[in-house]
Design goal:
By secondary structure, the protein is an alpha+beta fold. It folds into 2 domains: 5-120, Alpha-Beta Plaits; 129-176, SH3 type barrels (Roll), CATH 2.30.30. Helices cover 20% and strands 40% of the residues. The relative contact order is 0.17.
Amino acid sequence: MSEMQWYVVRVQPGKEELVQTNLARRVKEAGLEEKVGRVLVISEKVSEIRSGSKRVTERKSYPGYIFIEMVLEDESWFLVRETPGLGDFVGPQMKPVPLGYDDVEKLMLEADKVEEKPKLQINFQVGDGVKIKEGPFQNFDGVVDEVIPDKGLVRVVVTIFGRATPVELEYWQVETL
């Protein structure tokens, strides 16, 4: 029997989990578990503050794609292709091309990260104009000098008494102008 390899398949964005569930069910019904292995949807947890409350959401790392470990034979290929919501395999002229060893290793590392602590989503970039909405510098305008995502901080340069002064603030204490 041939060795299983990883393939990338296009799916309708936002339907990745549904397609993953449907494909797993169809594989089981057809008894092709030895030819179609894992089906992955890679995502990461992101922490953000909206309307004053903290929310943790999952964001797809590769929206519109799923990763399938399978032996590429007519029977398994047909089963995958005929699953509702699945598009084409990624490859030249719709010919499936397996992922390389390095790509698979990177993919597995990303898949394992899902269980880690949520990553902060800070929607500021260096040079953005911001208004401070809380703290001792409330209602001051400034420019983002540095974003420190690990600590959830934003360094903003504020003009106080005619002098540019850097101030470190929590990312939720500022808003874009």
